[in-house]
Amino acid sequence: MKRTQRVVHLFIVLAGLFLVLVGCQKTSSQQASSSTSNVKQELLDHKTLTVGLEGTYAPFSYRKNGELAGFEVDLSRDIAKKLGVKVKFVPTKWDSLIAGLGANKFDVVLNNITKTPEREKVYDFSTPYIYSRYALITPTAKAGTITKLADIKGKTVVEGTGTSNEVLAKKLGAAKILPSGDFATTLGLLRQNRADATINSTAAWYSFAKSNSTKGLKFRAVPDAQQKPDEVSALLTKKTPKLRKAINQAIHDLRADGTLKKLSEKYFGGDVTTK
User: Fold this and answer.
1) Solute-binding protein family 3/N-terminal domain spans which residues (predicted)?
2) Does residue 31 surpass a pLDDT of 60?
């Protein structure tokens, strides 16, 4: 083969390879675009991820200088970016959050929610983004008699209605449960000796203790051997499987690139995103 023919042949081969690569990239781009489009079709607003949360439970979500802040607020924004949409927050009281999701007021709830058999019958959960370890908190006067979870049997405890903490307290045989809407109120009831104890999360205690007095209260971290950590996940309806899959991928990516850990250290003072 002459030199000129070789050059022409090489040019044709390279041109063909170029066209193949361009075609692959185009197909990949079209698939990604189609996938994103399918997810957006499941949103209440195709350009926005609408998130339900309390906005009153630091460090998960709370108000700072009038604006929403917290671990789950920042996480929601990061997930929305991964989905290529804006984010809208709908602050809602705890006892109306799950019902609000069922009534299509939001696309997803990020509010320190854990799985229960009852919830799983009706709703879907994302992959976990927090592994929440339990805390046992009592008035100082009760510190000598309530030292482990089993000691709340027959006692009066204060818990958020419908929370996994309430479920556990009932399972352990608490005699009476006082309802509470937020962590500060819960601790206030303990200080007033209106309840013997509360089961809550170590993360909530650490965050509260950063800027508030804990006088009159006794905190104990519950060992994993005594009670396994709860897995905190995003809550979705069963009508949005593509959105659930996309959120799972976003959480996976945010864990892999270190974002989850950074957010955890910022708001909790340590990494609560791993088992």
Assistant:
1) 48-271
2) no
